[in-house]
Amino acid sequence: MKRATAALAAASGLAAAVLSFSGAALAADAITGAVQKAETNWTAIVMFLAFVAGTLGITYWAASKTKTAKDFYSAGGGITGFQNGLAIAGDYMSAASFLGISALVYGSGYDGVIYSIGFLVGWPVILFLIAEQLRNLGKYTFADVASYRLQQTPIRTLAASGSLVVVALYLIAQMVGAGKLIQLLFGLDYAYAVVMVGILMIMYVTFGGMLATTWVQIIKAVLLLSGASFMAIMVLVHYGFNFGALFQAAVDVHPKGIAIMQPGTLVKDPVSAISLGIALMFGTAGLPHILMRFFTVADAKEARKSVFYATGFIGYFYILTFIIGFGAIVLLMNDPSYFKVAADGTYNKLTGVQGGANMVAIHLAKAVGGDLFLGFISAVAFATILAVVSGLTLAGASAVSHDLYASVFRRGRVNEVQEIRVSKMATVALGVLAIVLGIAFEQQNIAFMVGLAFAIAASANFPIIVLSMFWSKLTTNGALIGGFMGLISATVLVVLGPAVWEGVLGNVKGSAPFPYDNPAIFSVPLAFIGSWLFSILDKSQNARDEEAAYEAQYIRSQTGLGAEGASSH
Amino acid sequence: MHAELTKKIRNNPKFVELTTKRTAYGWKLSILMLVIYYGFILVVAFAPKLLGTPVSGVITLGIPLGVLIIVSAFILTGIYVRRANSEFDELNRQIIEETK
């Protein structure tokens, strides 16, 4: 088999963005920069086809069990805590975070650790404060929780807007990443790759609903964790499981030397550091496709277990990517065959990686396991994208059918058959839209999109969820104004920040009106203050009724009495 | 939920016990996690050299500390789940039992 990554130009967004803390945060979850098509990689294609055949088989099985709305949105509520933990971890371990974080470690060493810790620490807090209330109050979407005692129409419109914006941004980043990755790994045309991802995800979601989406995610999580474990073990075997020797070798070969063993240039200033910390921590608790997973388990007990397992798997995965990044330093940097070599035989160890810095984990797969394992890891990377976009599409479709169509447009006067039909139509529409946007954004700089998605999730969705659960005086007016303040301020500040103002709109460096890439430190408090202020100013009868309804909500959220159970079949 | 049932649960001392204990425990652990994480971020932001202190060969203080934070997140969730799934759930079961 020919080397799969015969790509020429890859001005990897990550390599450039490592210069700034939040810039790296944005890029590490998106694959950016121009890539060139590789030669067709048959091993990878055969393995990927095996994955597709297996998952379509599961979809066929899931379709026979997906009859009611509850089956479609929440897999009948019958997923176990362990399975859901794997699926949540799968949603979190996107191809871009696997490739991006190992590339970050490869380029800057220790900075990769700082970054992955930020991604992980939101999970314990989600467990301690909101997981069980979420499970006890919700049904299919987080809007069920936010609108529990507030007016359905405005709150569901707000929640659906927040969901759809987050899903759209995340989806575009994943689709563009998919197209580029597949071009690099499989040698397929960008447009074919995007269309193929779109069609497969439509099939999983429309036919198999949440059950198929969950199992695709579980299988992929197991494959990715096994593949990454194998790579990390092979690296450690090389050094007789002596970490000191591995790090010593890395320091010797890395152009930055001992600097890779301590914080580098990732953290620009304290405000950026804390702002990113807020966005990562609270953004996780506002991502619609993650929140939906809490409704797939039977009760609060299983919801808690899911977070416990998910935290374990995600933490383990980040430790693996750290070892993989260091393994790539020691095993690749002295081998010119992984680099673009100049006529005089020299090459740049950091920017000269074949296919771009994001490819180091893929190159390492070849270095430790040969062409066969390279094919396996390439197939897993593709499977990963497929699983993540399916979860996103299902979350977006649910916001359209359950929140906008059933509750806002039809005011609840709708039967299940109609609602499921609309959710399937919405899935197809979102899939087609994702294909079109994926192709339209091919040449665009999309590195900011995942960061923006996290900032909006933290600023619009999270404050409303938390306040509706814990503050009896929250009113419809307060939630609506505060939520939109968070949504709008996060979006505007991202556009005015350096990543978009200078990086995308092409204005001169230093001209951005807002100096930070991440707005969360301002937009999250703004949403809370807005919700608080417009709630206490609201003296209407509605506001008094909403406050009076809090007690019943509180009792249900604490005891689970009256909560949605698992369906009997 | 009926107003009568709501009143019955609200006046059950076990319900007060459950919510007070569980909420306090949740916040305690959350604050611990936040202190660990933001403590780390503040060191990164203001005293990055501290994390570069060598501990063994080229291994710096930052490496075991980073791994420790990842492991602590997992352990804290384990501690909470253990208590919530036994003590708190038992209390909750009794409350629901007593409403019947």
From TrEMBL, chain A:
**The UniProt record lists the keyword Membrane:** yes
- Asked if the Swiss-Prot or TrEMBL record annotates the protein with the keyword Membrane, the reply is yes
Q: Name one GO cellular component term.
A: plasma membrane
Q: How does it sit in the bilayer?
A: Multi-pass membrane protein
An annotated Gene Ontology molecular function: acetate transmembrane transporter activity
Classification via InterPro entries? Na/Glc_symporter_sf (IPR038377), Na/solute_symporter (IPR001734), Na/solute_symporter_CS (IPR018212), Sodium:Solute_Symporter (IPR050277)
Query: Which family does the UniProt entry place this protein in?
Result: Belongs to the sodium:solute symporter (SSF) (TC 2.A.21) family.
Q: What is this protein called?
A: Cation/acetate symporter ActP
* Native source organism of the sequence: Skermanella aerolata
TrEMBL record, chain B:
Swiss-Prot/TrEMBL keywords: Membrane, Transmembrane, Transmembrane helix
Q: Which residues cross the membrane?
A: 29-47, 59-81
Residues annotated as coiled-coil are: none
Give one Pfam hit by family name. Answer: DUF485
The superkingdom listed in its UniProt entry is Bacteria
Cellular component aspect of the GO annotation = plasma membrane
Q: What is this protein called?
A: Membrane protein
Which organism is the protein's source?
Skermanella aerolata
